[in-house]
Specification:
Elements lengths: L1 E6 L4 H10 L1 H4 L3 E4 L1 H11 L4 E2 L7 H10 L5 E5 L8 H15 L4 E2 L2 H13 L4 H5 L1
Parallel strand pairs: 1-2, 1-4, 2-3, 4-5
Helix pairs in contact: 1-3, 4-5
């Protein structure tokens, strides 16, 4: 399965810890991330990732294009709901909207991310193969 990983600055450490905790599951899949998040995950968890540009330089749009092409099966987007309104807000809405339109499972917080990763490990996401 192809998994997209994105984290706002305030959530990058949480994403690193998540990837360390679930390294055994994540290592079995193709991982995609924006530049900074990807580099931090590689350093912390030792996972190999395909990295896009940094989010603010177009990485979120690259990830969005992959969602539109139905090339991602799952997205974990650890967002900071407390962040001030910036250009990120429109990018956030775009990623969430695209996942909704293309029926891509999306986690925007740690609790949902853990549920989706455990579901993936149990084989509950195999419907994505049939869906494609």
């Amino acid at each position: 399965m192809n998994i997209g990983l994105i984290a706002h600055d305030a959530k990058k450490k949480l994403m690193q810890n998540f990837c360390i905790a679930y390294r055994g599951i994540l290592d079995k899949h193709e991982l995609y991330a924006t530049e900074t998040t990807g580099r931090l995950i590689e350093e912390a968890a030792g996972l190999n990732l395909h990295k896009y540009l940094a989010g603010h330089l177009g990485g979120e749009q690259q990830l969005g294009a992959q969602i539109e092409a139905d090339a991602l099966d799952l997205v974990i987007f650890l967002r900071d709901p407390e962040s001030p309104i910036t250009h990120e807000q429109s990018s956030n809405r775009s990623i969430v909207r695209l996942c909704d339109i293309h029926n891509i499972p999306l986690a925007t917080n740690l609790a949902t991310a853990e549920l989706l990763i455990k579901s993936l490990d149990r084989g509950d996401m195999e419907w994505r193969e049939m869906y494609k």
